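just leaving the lab so this will be short. below you get a single protein, a line of residues and a line of whole numbers that encode the local backbone shape. id like you to explain what the token line says about the fold, in plain words if possible. thanks a lot i owe you, the record is right below:

…
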Amino acid sequence: MSQSPESLYARIRQEVAARADRLWDVSLALHRDPETAYEEHRAAGLLAGELEREGFEVRRGVADLPTAFVARAGSATGGREGPSVALLMEYDALPLLGHACGHNLIAAAGLGAALAVRAALGEVEGTLLAVGTPAEERGGGKVAEVAAGVFEGVDAALMFHPGVHDWTWAPLTASAQVRVGFHGRAAHPTGSPTEGIDALGALIQLFNTLGVLGRRLPTGSHVQGIVTDGGRATNLVPAYAEGLFGLRGETTSALERLVEELRSCAEGVALATRTRVEVTDVGGRYEHFRDNEVLSALFAGHLDRAGIRLSEPTAGVYLGSSDFGNVSTRVPGIHPWIAIMGPEASDHTPEFAEAAAGPRARHVMSAAAEALACTAADVLLRPDVRERAWARLREKAAAGR
């Protein structure tokens, strides 16, 4: 480093502080104008515009997603090699609930971190990316970005998430959406009852079978289903019935096993009921989150300067799933959880949406931006950090964790 670590961190904090009002205005603008998955046109335009104004080169519509973008700064261009770090921004909202997951804060913190790193370092030696990632709540923008190679060559992917806990990492399970459709044969239930093959009866039997299966599933795994098509009339044996099932597993391999169990159950029910069944994935699967302790420890240390102390997650508590899992299994990554409400509350509620525009949220946003920026600087400037982070990722991958 051309300057001492502490002086660099102080400069980063100054750069975030100088932009604090502007970052909060961005956060509130997103909060006032919530856009759901793949519809975040104004949010993506606002964030990309802010980055362009401070000298980032912005490429819009990456991974064939109109509301995704990558903003780039640094010296490693034109094929030149060097360290690379990505700061991730989420900005989609929930239907009917707005920013009840606090993605407005994720976006503003990622933006602030990117701007502060570039300003504090001047000409970045390597590559600094600010990645706009749409549709975390439904569909998985990061799944598409991983497939498109957005994170190839990246040494660290950094983001935070607001919540009701102060945890160094988020216990996020692997997840999948699976559609199961049973095909039977229509008939009049009174006039010709023996001619009908009840597709809805088969679907109901599948729900009963999965209820038995659920009692022996391992920790972190579950199946939750809804009926999306149960027939059209009570005086007609349903020729088609369909259910949508959400599956979660503690690890990606556990999820894969659970999907195969669902498939086996559906095929067994079809055989028993003389129906025909189709089992298909809906959207991309979310892999489990693989925390990188090397980077998480650095982030937690930087966040401590802002008066927020992180602890390990409570054993056996799972927070859901995220498409960031697909990034973290390929690139060293962090996804710490920082509370904007107390542990008695919950995200995905109107109360959480209100809190995401409150004074505690503003403090968390600024603190997270500082800690993310300092961690990004560590990755860019310290070869030992990059080496240890990659070594830890390889260790976990070999162990399937």
Q: What stands out?
A: The two ends are 34 Å apart (CA to CA). Residues 34 and 98 are 5 Å apart (CA to CA). Residues 359-381 form the longest helix (23 residues). The mean pLDDT is 94.
